[in-house]
Structure formats: structure tokens, C-alpha cells
Write a structure and sequence with these properties.
Layout (H helix, E strand, L loop, with lengths): L13 E11 L3 E2 L7 E9 L2 E9 L2 H9 L6 E11 L2 E11 L16 H13 L4 H11 L2 H8 L15 H19 L5 H10 L4 H4 E3 L3 E3 L1 H21 L6 H13 L15 H25 L4 E4 L5 E4 L4
Parallel strand pairs: 4-6
Antiparallel strand pairs: 1-3, 1-5, 2-3, 3-4, 5-6, 7-8, 9-10
Helix pairs in contact: 2-3, 5-6, 5-10, 6-9, 6-10, 8-9, 9-10
Length: 319
């Protein structure tokens, strides 16, 4: 049974437990002519991630150890934590694959009940006024297999926000709550279209990600990305609904394609009508806020540098 979790590790603590290899760096030679080589790993469990380094004196042994492990492996780590650049990391003395683990120690799950979230979503869909949009949404949310095996299990990301089992559905419901407030202050906005954006914008993530002992990107996800996948999924559903208005179809698909708001962030087009603009900002707000919350919760330091997206320091107020 796992007893040491990432969130509990502090500097100068002996480490002897199992972690998942989330990311594997390359082998590097020591500088200044010093003999030997080293490599780094990012290790994880359900509570977070931590950097770890192996410092080898023999190139052959270091390379052999490096080649014996892969991303996604469960590994038994023996070593000691230290502090580097205001962050806790592990200096590994020994690494070996391990089959002695419980999967629940490594996969974080949404704290909210998935069946209740599905029920809440279906009630929201019942309130949609436009018959074509309601039909489109019902084709997804009334599909028991899809909702129970895919939508309610999918994460909203791998390393960014809501990156845990059930995170996508939690994100969707949060977006709808925010949309209610925005539409109340901007009654000109079509709330049905905002709901469509909330529920369908990331629908491609049910095929982009898979969950094993960690969140992984599928081959299909790497090839096409969730925006393209979602566009295809929703286009197929719309084509099966008789008489679906062309203009409405274009608006729905545009909201999926433009929800990242900027071309450099992966959207092939920018938002081009009020609901699309509003939704892209709503999505960005919830994603960035949740990411900051998770970063602060998982940090063990007073300041945490985030370099995946925003590239700046976060104050965690921990000391």
C-alpha cells in the first residue's frame, strides 16, 4: 500500500514508494569534463507531480537504467527529497519497475458524484428552447453508454485544468453556471447557444484522452486534436437531424472551432459573433481559474512557477 504521496513530500525526507513516470527526460552528460551522466523524470500520483533526478557515475549503468523504464510505468523509487530553485524534488538512488500498487493511488477523480452531474446536465438540456439544439444535445446526453462510459469519465485536460476522471463534465456544468450570469447581464445573448458551447465545445476530449494508470493522449487525439474531433462528432449528429437550419449549424460548429479564442492557441478561426465571443471568454475564465486553484492546492512552496501556459509565478501563501 502506498504511504508517501507527492503532496506530502517536503525537503530532506527519505523516499521509498511507488510513483508513475509522467514524463521522461533525456540522458545528459555532466559538464566541465566530469565523468558520468544523469537524467530527469516527472513522477506523479493522484495528488500531483514532482521532478526527480538520477545522478550516475557510470554512463553504461545510467543508460541501462534509463532504457529499462518508460513513461506510464509504475516504479519503486528510493532516494531523498531536496529543494532546488524553491521547489521540492527527489534525488533518486535506485529505480525499479513495480507491480505492487493500487490504481486508485494514481488516478485523481472528481469529488462530485458522476450520476448526479449527469442528472443535472440532462435537466439543463430539458430547458433548452430551440427544438433543433435540444434534439442535438439529447442525441449526446440521452445516450446512456456514451454518458456513463465516456462523457462522465473523461478529463478536461492532461496537465492543465480539471485533469482528472470526471473533470470534463464538472467543467461543463461550471461553464453553464457562469453563462447564466453572463447572459443575465447581457440578455441579448442567446442562452441556448451558450449552453451548446458549454456542452459540446470539448466533446472531442472523450476520444482525445484515455485513462490507464494516468491520463494519456490517444493516437487519434494526437493526429486530430479535440477541436477537430469535436467538429466531426457534432457535424455527424447534425447531419442526422432532418431540417436542421444551415445558419444554426454554422453557428454551432463555429463555436466549437473558435473556443480557444486565438489562432496561436489552437483555434482555426477566431470567434465571429457575440455568443461565440462570450463563450470563448467564459471557457478561458473557468479553465485558467481552475488551473490556478489546482496549482496552489498541489504546491508545497510559497511561490510556484507555472511554465506550461502563462509563464509566471503564482503566490500560494504557504510557508
Amino acid at each position: 500500500m502506498k504511504t508517501q504521496f507527492v503532496s506530502d513530500l517536503k525537503p530532506e525526507v527519505l523516499v521509498d514508494d511507488v510513483f508513475v513516470i509522467d514524463k521522461k527526460g533525456s540522458v545528459n552528460q555532466y559538464k566541465n569534463g566530469k565523468a558520468g551522466s544523469w537524467f530527469s523524470l516527472v513522477l506523479s500520483d493522484k495528488t500531483g507531480k514532482i521532478s526527480a533526478k538520477y545522478w550516475g557515475n557510470n554512463d553504461a549503468m545510467t543508460n541501462s537504467l534509463y532504457d529499462s523504464i518508460l513513461e506510464g510505468d509504475h516504479v519503486k523509487i528510493h532516494g531523498k527529497t531536496t529543494s532546488y530553485d524553491n521547489k521540492t524534488e527527489i534525488h533518486m538512488e535506485h529505480i525499479s519497475k513495480s507491480a505492487d500498487f493500487e490504481i486508485g493511488d494514481f488516478i485523481k477523480t472528481c469529488s462530485k458524484n458522476s450520476l448526479q452531474m449527469i442528472s443535472n446536465l440532462r435537466q439543463i438540456v430539458k430547458e433548452v428552447k430551440n427544438p433543433y439544439l435540444k434534439h442535438l444535445l439529447e442525441s449526446f446526453v440521452n445516450d446512456e453508454k456514451f454518458m456513463n462510459e465516456q462523457s462522465s469519465q473523461a478529463p478536461a485536460g492532461k496537465n492543465w485544468h480539471h485533469d482528472y476522471v470526471g473533470g470534463l463534465l464538472e467543467h461543463v456544468l461550471s461553464l453553464i453556471d457562469i453563462s447564466r450570469t453572463v447572459q443575465k447581464n447581457h440578455p441579448e445573448l442567446d442562452f441556448d447557444l451558450l449552453v451548446i458551447g458549454c456542452i459540446l465545445h470539448d466533446i472531442g476530449k472523450v476520444k482525445e484522452f484515455k485513462i490507464t494508470n494516468k491520463i494519456q493522449i490517444t493516437d487519434y487525439g494526437r493526429l486530430f486534436g479535440h477541436i477537430s474531433i469535436g467538429f466531426l462528432m457534432v457535424s455527424e449528429k447534425i447531419s442526422s437531424i432532418p431540417g436542421f437550419p444551415e445558419e444554426l449549424k454554422n453557428k454551432v460548429l463555429h463555436m466549437i472551432l473558435s473556443h480557444h479564442r486565438q489562432l496561436e492557441h489552437g483555434s482555426p478561426v477566431v470567434p465571429m459573433f457575440p455568443e461565440a465571443v462570450a463563450f470563448s471568454m467564459i471557457d478561458d475564465t473557468d479553465a485558467k481559474t481552475q488551473h490556478a486553484i489546482q496549482l496552489v492546492e498541489q504546491s508545497k512552496n510559497e511561490w510556484e512557477y507555472e511554465d506550461d501556459y502563462s509563464g509566471h509565478w503564482f503566490w500560494t501563501n504557504k510557508n
